[in-house]
Write a structure and sequence with these properties.
The complex is a heterodimer. By secondary structure, chain A is mostly helical. Chain A is 67% helix and 0% strand. The longest helix of chain B is centred in the first third of the chain and has 36 residues, at 81-116. The chains are: A mainly alpha, B mainly alpha. At the A-B interface, helix 5, helix 6, helix 9, helix 10 and helix 11 of A face helix 1, helix 6, helix 7, helix 8 and helix 12 of B.
C-alpha cells in the first residue's frame, strides 16, 4: 500500500499572550493612549472629575479655560453658561457615551452574531429572509427613525440611564445588528466547508456545539475588528441625536448636547462648544486608527468590507 | 422590476411604522381638548377625526390623504403640513445640490490625484481631509466653521438664507462628509485599477500618462462611489438635519428639528415621509445609473 498524505485544514490558531505582546509593539501608541484615557475617565468619572458636572456656580459662569486670562485651575477647561465645570462634564460625557456604545454593541452584536451564524449555517430560506431584512434595514435612514421614535414613544418608554436614553439604545441596536449579521454570515459560509467542521459532524457533534465551539471561534477576530470600528460610529450617531435634542436628555452631561448648549455663546465663550467636540473628534479618530491597525494585524481580508 | 418592488415595500413599511407609532403614542384627543370636556364632546371629536373606525380603515384614510399631499395640520404652527413642507423643499434642494457639487468637484479629483501621486503632499492632505470627515461630528464642524468664518472673521453671515453667501458654510458642513467618502472610495478604487493588467498594457503600448489615468482608469474607478451612493444618500438626510439646524437654514431638516423640539407629530410625519420618498427615488435612480455604467450588473 502506497503512502498517501492527507492534508487537513485545521482551525485557525489564536495568537496567544506572547503574540499579542509582539503585535502591540507596533500598535499606534497615541490613539491607544487617548482611548485608555477616555475609558479610564468614563469608568472613574465620579471620582476623577474635579467638580459636580450638574451643579453650576452662577457667579463663575462662562469663565475661560485655565490658560487664558481670567481662567482658574479649578475650572481647567472653563465653565458653561450656567457656571458648570466643562472639564467635569466632558469626563462624565465619556461615561454616558461609553455606556450607550457598550450596551448597543452588546445587544446588537449578540443578535447579529446569532442570526448571522444561523443564516450562514442553514442557508436556504433562513438566509433569504435574513438578507431581505438586511436590505430593508439598510434602506431606512436611521436618524429619521430615531427622531420619530423619540417624539412618539420617548415619553412613555421605560427610564434607563435617564429619559429616552434606553430608547436610543434600542433604536441603535436594532439597526447595528445588521452589520454584524452580514459579516458573520459571510464568514460562516466559508468556514462551514472546512474539514475540521466536517470532522466534528462525523464525530457526532450537535449543531449548537459545532456552531459554538467550531465555527464561532473562527469569527472572533473579525468580530473584534468590526466592533472596534462600530464603536466610533455609535458615538457619532448618539452625539448627533443628543445635539438635535433627541438623544440623552439634560441634565445628564452628554457630549452632543454640550455642543448644542454652547451654540448661542460662541462669541463670548467658544470653549463650551469646542471642548466636548474635541473630545468626540479625538475619541472617534483614535477608534478608527486603532480599528484600522487591528484589522490589518488580525484580519487583513476585511480591508474591503470595512470601507463601507 | 424587483428593485422597484423593494423600494415600494420599504416605503410601505415606513408609512406603517409612522402610522403605528402615531397610534401608540397616545390618543390625540387628549391633546386637543381640555380635561373638563364631557364624554359626549370627546366622543364627537373622536368621530370627526375618524378615530372610531378600525385601524386598517384609519390607515387607508391616512394613505389616501398622504397621496393627495394632505398630512394634516401642524399642532404648533397651525398650518397645513403639506404647505409647510413645500415652502421649505427648495431650500433643502439647494443645499443638497451644493454639497453634492462640492463632493464631485473636490472629492473625486482629489481621490484620483492622491492615488496617482501616492505618498505625496497631496496624498497626505487628502488623508487628513478624509480622516476628519470620517471622525468629526458634522454638527461640531459646522459650529467651528461658524465660529471662525462668521463670528471671528466676519467673511460670511453666521446663519439664515438672506444672502447668496449664506449657503457657503452649511454647504461645506454638509459636503465635508461626502467629499471624504468620495475621496476614500475613488482613491482605493483608483489604486486597484491602476494596478490591473489592462492599465499595464495601455502603458506598455505607449499611451500617455494623462490618457491612462483619465480615460482608462478613471471611468472604472467611478463604480465604487456609485455602489455606496445608497448609503451616502441616507447620510445626506442626516447631514441636512444637522447642517440646517446649526445654520438656521430654512429647509426640511430644520423643520424636522423644530417638530422634534415641539413634539409636533403630524409635522414630523410629513417631513419623514417626504424624506423617505426622495431617498427611495434617488437610490432607485442611482441603481439604474449603476447598471448603465457597469453592464455586468443586471436587475431582473
Amino acid at each position: 500500500m502506497s503512502q498517501e498524505s492527507i492534508v487537513l485544514t485545521l482551525p485557525p490558531k489564536n495568537l496567544g499572550a506572547k503574540g499579542v505582546l509582539r503585535r502591540l509593539k507596533r500598535a499606534p501608541l497615541l490613539p491607544l493612549f487617548l482611548l485608555s484615557l477616555v475609558v479610564f475617565a468614563g469608568i472613574l468619572a465620579p471620582w476623577v472629575s474635579p467638580n459636580d458636572p450638574r451643579k453650576g456656580d452662577l457667579r463663575a459662569r462662562m469663565s475661560p479655560p485655565a490658560w487664558l486670562e481670567g481662567g482658574t485651575m479649578q475650572h481647567f477647561l472653563g465653565t458653561d453658561h450656567l457656571g458648570r465645570d466643562v472639564f467635569s462634564r466632558v469626563i462624565h460625557g465619556a461615561r454616558i457615551s461609553l455606556i450607550v456604545a457598550a450596551v448597543t454593541l452588546g445587544v446588537g452584536g449578540t443578535i447579529g452574531v446569532v442570526l448571522g451564524l444561523l443564516a450562514g449555517w442553514y442557508g436556504s430560506w433562513v438566509d433569504e429572509a435574513l438578507m431581505r431584512l438586511v436590505d430593508i434595514a439598510l434602506a431606512v435612514p436611521l436618524v429619521l427613525v430615531a427622531l420619530v421614535m423619540v417624539v412618539s414613544v420617548g415619553q412613555t418608554f421605560p427610564d434607563f440611564l435617564g429619559g429616552q436614553t434606553g430608547l436610543i439604545v434600542v433604536v441603535l441596536a436594532s439597526w447595528i445588528w445588521v452589520r454584524f449579521a452580514r459579516i458573520v454570515r459571510g464568514e460562516v459560509l466559508q468556514l462551514k466547508t472546512k474539514d475540521y467542521v466536517a470532522l466534528a459532524k462525523v464525530a457526532g457533534a450537535s449543531t449548537p456545539r459545532i456552531l459554538a465551539f467550531h465555527i464561532f471561534p473562527g469569527v472572533i477576530n473579525t468580530l473584534i475588528v468590526v466592533s472596534t470600528l462600530q464603536v466610533g460610529w455609535v458615538i457619532l450617531v448618539e452625539s448627533t441625536l443628543s445635539f438635535l435634542g433627541a438623544g440623552v436628555p439634560p441634565p445628564t452631561p452628554a457630549w452632543g448636547s454640550m455642543v448644542a448648549d454652547g451654540r448661542d455663546f460662541l462669541a463670548g465663550a467658544w470653549w463650551i462648544s469646542t471642548m466636548p467636540g474635541v473630545a468626540i473628534l479625538l475619541t472617534v479618530i483614535s477608534l478608527n486608527l486603532f480599528g484600522d491597525w487591528l484589522r490589518d494585524s488580525l484580519d487583513p481580508r476585511l480591508r474591503q468590507l470595512a470601507s463601507t | 422590476m424587483r428593485r422597484l418592488l423593494l423600494s415600494f415595500v420599504t416605503l410601505l413599511l415606513v408609512t406603517v411604522l409612522i402610522f403605528f407609532m402615531a397610534r401608540i403614542s397616545g390618543d390625540p384627543t387628549t391633546l386637543l381638548i381640555d380635561d373638563y370636556a364631557s364624554a359626549q364632546t370627546l366622543e364627537d371629536l373622536r368621530v370627526s377625526l375618524g378615530l372610531d373606525k378600525s385601524y386598517p380603515e384609519q390607515y387607508w384614510t391616512f394613505i389616501k390623504n398622504a397621496l393627495r399631499g394632505d398630512f394634516g395640520e401642524s399642532i404648533v404652527q397651525k398650518k397645513a403640513v403639506g404647505t409647510l413642507v413645500l415652502e421649505r423643499l427648495v431650500a433643502t434642494f439647494q443645499l443638497g445640490l451644493a454639497a453634492f457639487f462640492l463632493s464631485l468637484v473636490v472629492g473625486v479629483p482629489l481621490g484620483v490625484l492622491s492615488a496617482v501621486k501616492r505618498g505625496s503632499m497631496m496624498d497626505q492632505v487628502a488623508k487628513i481631509i478624509a480622516l476628519i470627515g470620517q471622525s468629526a461630528p458634522p454638527f461640531w464642524i459646522g459650529i467651528m466653521l461658524m465660529f471662525f468664518f462668521a463670528v471671528k472673521l466676519g467673511w460670511v453671515p453666521p446663519s439664515g438664507r438672506q444672502q447668496a453667501s449664506s449657503i457657503i458654510l452649511p454647504a461645506v458642513t454638509l459636503g465635508w462628509f461626502f467629499v471624504a467618502a468620495n475621496l476614500r472610495l475613488v482613491r482605493s478604487a483608483m489604486l486597484d485599477v491602476l494596478d490591473s493588467e489592462y492599465i499595464k498594457l495601455a502603458r506598455a503600448k505607449g499611451v500617455s500618462s494623462t490618457m491612462v489615468v483619465w480615460k482608462h482608469a478613471f471611468r472604472n474607478a467611478l463604480i465604487p462611489p456609485l455602489t455606496f451612493a445608497g448609503i451616502t444618500l441616507g447620510s445626506l438626510i442626516t447631514g441636512s438635519l444637522v447642517a440646517e439646524t446649526v445654520f438656521a437654514w430654512p429647509g426640511l431638516g430644520q423643520l424636522a428639528f423644530l417638530a422634534v423640539r415641539d413634539s409636533d407629530y403630524p409635522l414630523l410625519q410629513g417631513v419623514v415621509i417626504t424624506f423617505a420618498v426622495f431617498y427611495l427615488a434617488s437610490t432607485f435612480l442611482v441603481d439604474i445609473l449603476y447598471a448603465y455604467c457597469d453592464p455586468r450588473i443586471r436587475y431582473t
